[in-house]
Structure prediction request, 664 residues.
Amino acid sequence: MINFNESQIIENAYYIYKQRSKIEAIADQICKRDFDLLFFTSSGGSMSMLLPFNFWLNYSSGLPTAAMLSADLLITGCNLLTKNSIVFMTSKSGDTQETLEAAQYAKNKGAFIVSAVGAADSPLEAASDAAVIYDAGRPQELIFYLLIGKILYNRGLFPVYPDFADNMKNLGAALMNVRKQADEKCRQYALSCHKEPYNIWVGSGDLWPTAYSYSMCVLEESQWIRTKSVSSPEFFHGTLELLEKDVCVTLLLTEGPTRPLDERVKHFAAKHTNKLTCFDTRDYLLPGIKDEYRPLLSPVVMAAVLQRISKNIEVITGHSLDIRRYYRKGEY
Amino acid sequence: MINFNESQIIENAYYIYKQRSKIEAIADQICKRDFDLLFFTSSGGSMSMLLPFNFWLNYSSGLPTAAMLSADLLITGCNLLTKNSIVFMTSKSGDTQETLEAAQYAKNKGAFIVSAVGAADSPLEAASDAAVIYDAGRPQELIFYLLIGKILYNRGLFPVYPDFADNMKNLGAALMNVRKQADEKCRQYALSCHKEPYNIWVGSGDLWPTAYSYSMCVLEESQWIRTKSVSSPEFFHGTLELLEKDVCVTLLLTEGPTRPLDERVKHFAAKHTNKLTCFDTRDYLLPGIKDEYRPLLSPVVMAAVLQRISKNIEVITGHSLDIRRYYRKGEY
Prediction:
């Protein structure tokens, strides 16, 4: 396996896990407030990382929750957001302009801002009421599994949280293992997909943000490969008509509640193209993690799988994942 | 101009306008309830038609509002929705399965359901507490301009509503006129775009749903043309990297509040591709409608413009807009 460092993956996950008590204290701090909304905002791939937690809250609790892109928030506002709201944000650099301005918007409203930030001493950390610094820690989602999980637990809505969080100690090793299981399939996929003129990516529920962001932020942004992403239910309201035997379709199947929507796409697409690839989180063992927690973990399992496409494709295409024509080069 | 019937367009708009007092009575009925949420749900193109009204409410009022695809609603629910909520839905056929099931979900919650339905005596009409039948009436949006406008007026948030609604009497003629102004540009666009291997569509705010649905529900579904749609702010989080001098980009510019996000894309894309087409609602006169109402009307103005692509492209490609390979053919 190329570009693969077992101990680094485990160490990076532990970097976040070891902040568990700090993260839980933030959750406790949030729960002491009589909050009226749990609100998620960021941009691009960071927003996609947050959306499954908005999904989890809505699906499994009555806690009011909403999400909006920071760029939209800055122009139109969100009329559900008040001084009693909690705002969750994330940024790797901690200086993404839109995200910082959104933090200022939330601050002006008097909301309580909680951030996950890659870089310590960044402007986003300074603008936040509480911040978790993850540095090289991965997956960043682990911060939110602990944070949102503990909020739900405190409200009596996720009684197994202490055990779930204990399981999270093994997340790094489990996801390292997923990468090993997925590598050969992903390498084969990378060999073929980079030659395709058009790649349709489909997913639903907690994996729709993954389908959206992997196709855009990795294949488009870092490999200049043309994609279209569409959610599993919406696929049937237009995109289905594009299918022919040589049209490349990549479907992400979640173990979350919307899985039947993905299976419907699988059933249809398998009949109408020879180039359907399914990445199904169910195919991967998660050693050290109880089965009952799997339905929550599809986003991080799928991210581990897809990372093996990224690691292989840059070698196959000879196009480093770090090369950009325009992104963050000059003003635009 | 091919496939163009002036009097029919005016007649179709009047078919909806003449139901103004009925629509306003529904708004009054809604306002008598102590509602906690104005909620929009449907699927595909119908959902895209509704989203600008969710956008309008959020932008211009403190009235709580939210939106969710019916397929997602059915599986995950919406925890903001209660027996005190108002649910807005729309379906041309009135028998879209997901939409009907979503109506049942809302009914079970005890919410008040308001529908815009193409076909009289349809299941969706039967499932609704109040329904407006539009038959051949167009644009369907006119129902919601009157409905949402009157709700805002009743709450003291849109005092110019009576005059705005009077202006809506001229909407059909204005949009007929827009079509005439747009036709030649759209015909030229249709001549070139149908040959493109990949079409990036971009828009924001109240026109993001138009960019999303026109590319998917018309170009993909009825012309089998490959597209990618992305919102103007998200364009800069990945898709921008695809631009080269021969990459086809189609940008919709709104007169709504997010226009600066579109102008940023225009400025960038003009530098990096020779195949940028901008459709800008600002380019079209709206006789009989005051300038102050234009910022609300971008979705219907743009729909009138884009319809001229549709009407021309089916003649150019010899591919009728009504031909489907799969959609609503057999089970899937």
Remarks:
- The mean pLDDT of chain A is 97.
- The CA atoms of residues 14 and 172 of chain A lie 7 Å apart.
- The beta strands of chain A are 37-40, 65-67, 85-91, 112-117, 130-133, 199-203, 227-231, 248-253, 276-280.
